[in-house]
Design goal:
- The complex is a heterodimer of chains A (203) and B (319).
- Chain A is mainly alpha-helical and 203 residues long.
- In chain A, helix 2 packs across helix 3 and helix 4 runs antiparallel to helix 9.
- About 48% of the residues of chain A have low confidence.
- Chain B has 319 residues and is α+β, with helices and mostly antiparallel strands.
- Helix content of chain B is 16%, strand content 46%.
- In chain B, the strands form 3 sheets. In chain B, strands 7-8-9-10-11-1-2-3-4-5-6-12 form a 12-stranded mixed beta sheet, with helices on one face. Chain B has a 6-stranded antiparallel beta sheet with strand order 14-15-16-19-18-17, with helices on one face. Chain B has a two-stranded antiparallel ribbon with strand order 13-20.
- Chain B starts with a helix and ends in a 6-residue tail after the last strand.
- The chains are: A mainly alpha (203), B alpha+beta (319).
- At the A-B interface, helix 9, helix 10 and helix 11 of A face strand 1, strand 2, strand 3, strand 4 and strand 5 of B.
Chain lengths: 203, 319
């Protein structure tokens, strides 16, 4: 294997690649058995350094993931749907992250802390539910399988909250507004009111 | 043959468990609104932990509820038949919401449980002790992955809810209410229901009631919501911070609620995007069709995001 490839993987792990480069690098991992083994070794090294090594290391995890993904067509699909959905793609908030499709990415994203907002793709004409629920279903199956395969700390693909920004302040005031409204609907017992009292005001 | 019987027995058990769980939830709903109680509970949401006291009084005039923070700055919420009043001592503000819908009637509740049962399954999942009292644990499990799981600990004697947890599909607990102590007195004195002194505070009253007559046809098309969500209210609100009108749509499946706030992006104003979470409540804001769409609700982040991304201007209004 060329040093170049190894370098790329290392850079991928460190989150130093642009999204395009990431995509390429993940393609390497996906397609090349030797690279894949290295990828695994790197995981283990990284995990050890972070003290998150599972009590029983499963060296064939990547293989299992691949098998699982072969049965997950809906997950492999989003790339095309994303591209067809110009409306969302044109906004900066949720740039599709390398198709999110690929086997390794589910773990890689989490393991290397490349926090990311999952791209969902309701289509513009409102025919979304079917697409979306298929996708959601598959992802959650996969997440469940992953849950048993790897430790919790490295498992989840996360939405990353904004902090200490105008957006955050604003979103928090919307949450307050929602909770206030909710509390008079009286749907869930003490919980909505508890949210109101629990809310320290922002000013 | 034996397997067939076993499967049948299992199915019957499941059905019994569901029926029992539903009965307990119905009794709980009635108890929460018809009993006097005075208790202290711990409320945890995300990484926040607070302690609060709740005093609930019922007499011939109806229900009054007072919720007081015991940690942090003093804050309280008083709810009676008409108003919800929030008092925040840290910024000396009082907010009064007039015209609460009359949803306190206990008779409403079996109906709402019937509604919940269309999208969630009920089950008895065990017994536990909370605040020194014996409880049943009832689980409310959604039929799809777009909602959260609710677990409720219900007092065997009084049917009051003594603990509740909102849990995601990965079994992470997002929000918990846990009573550490509760009294169920025959009477509660009016003194206990008097809120803290807030005469010097700045008062903000929302006079507008949210009645049917306020409803205007929305300009917006919400392309996707999890099945079973229907519109609870639709009104124009003035957003206090910006003095700008925004459209507020609220949907519920009988248990979880979701708010959509839609407002115009003024010229020269940068569209915003972002996400925050507070325990079980997730909020997304994105911009679409020159408008800022913000979705807030106690649903998984993914669901909230999908709802936000599905909002568009109704095609008849597009140029």
């Amino acid at each position: 294997m060329s040093d170049n490839k190894l370098e790329r993987i290392s850079a991928l792990m460190d989150g130093e690649l642009s999204s395009q480069e990431r995509e390429l690098a993940i393609d390497y991992v996906k397609d090349d058995l030797e690279v894949k083994q290295n990828w695994q070794r790197y995981h283990i090294i990284g995990d050890t350094m972070r003290n998150t090594l599972p009590s029983m290391v499963q060296p064939d995890l990547a293989e299992k993931l691949n098998k699982m993904l072969e049965n997950e067509p809906a997950i492999l699909a989003p790339k095309s749907t994303v591209n067809s959905n110009k409306k969302i793609a044109s906004k900066d908030f949720t740039k599709p992250f390398i198709g999110l499709a690929i086997a390794a990415s589910v773990t890689a994203v989490a393991i290397f802390g490349i926090q990311n907002t999952e791209q969902q793709t309701p289509s513009v004409d409102g025919s979304a539910p079917q697409v979306v629920s298929n996708e959601g279903g598959s992802l959650s199956n996969l997440e469940q399988s992953l849950a048993t395969a790897i430790p919790k700390t490295v498992r989840t693909v996360k939405y990353e909250p904004v902090e200490n920004t105008i957006e955050a302040t604003r979103l928090n005031s919307y949450i307050l507004n929602h909770n206030q409204f909710n509390s008079r609907m009286g749907v869930q017992g003490v919980s909505p009111n508890a949210r109101l009292v629990g809310h320290e005001s922002q000013r | 043959m034996l397997t067939a019987i076993a499967v049948q027995v299992e199915a019957a058990d499941k059905e019994n468990s569901a029926t029992d769980a539903r009965k307990i939830l119905e009794k709980m709903s009635v108890a929460m609104h018809s009993l006097n109680y005075d208790g202290v509970f711990v409320y945890s949401s995300g990484n926040k932990l607070d302690s609060m006291r709740i005093i609930h009084k019922v007499d011939e005039q109806g229900e009054v509820e007072r919720l007081i923070s015991l940690t942090g700055s003093s804050r309280e919420v008083v709810r009676d038949r008409q108003d919800v009043t929030c008092i925040y001592s840290d910024n000396q503000t009082v907010m009064v919401n007039k015209g609460a819908p009359n949803k306190f009637l206990p008779t409403n509740f079996p109906e709402s449980i019937a509604r919940i049962s269309e999208h969630y399954r009920f089950a008895m999942v065990g017994d536990d002790r909370v605040a020194g009292r014996e409880t049943h644990i009832v689980e409310v499990m959604p039929n799809d992955e777009h909602r959260y799981v609710y677990r409720l600990w219900v007092d065997k004697e009084t049917n009051l809810m003594l603990k509740s947890a909102i849990v995601n599909m990965q079994e992470q607990i997002l929000e918990t209410v846990l009573f550490t102590q509760i009294d169920v007195p025959l009477e509660i004195s009016n003194d206990l229901m008097t809120p803290m002194n807030a005469v010097d505070y700045s008062w903000h009253t929302n006079e507008k009631s949210h009645k049917q007559t306020d409803q205007v046809e929305s300009k917006w098309n919400v392309g996707w919501l999890p099945v079973g969500f229907s519109m609870e209210s639709n009104n124009q609100q003035v957003f206090a911070e910006k003095q700008q009108i925004l459209e507020h749509l609220m949907y519920s499946d009988g248990l979880a609620t979701v708010s959509l706030f839609i407002e115009a992006v003024e010229e020269g104003e940068a569209p915003m995007s972002g996400y925050v979470a507070q325990g079980a409540v997730n909020a997304f804001t994105i911009s679409t069709d020159q408008c800022q769409v913000t979705v807030v609700g106690e649903l998984p982040a993914k669901t909230i995001h999908q709802i936000a991304a599905s909002v568009s201007l109704k095609s008849t209004l597009k140029k």
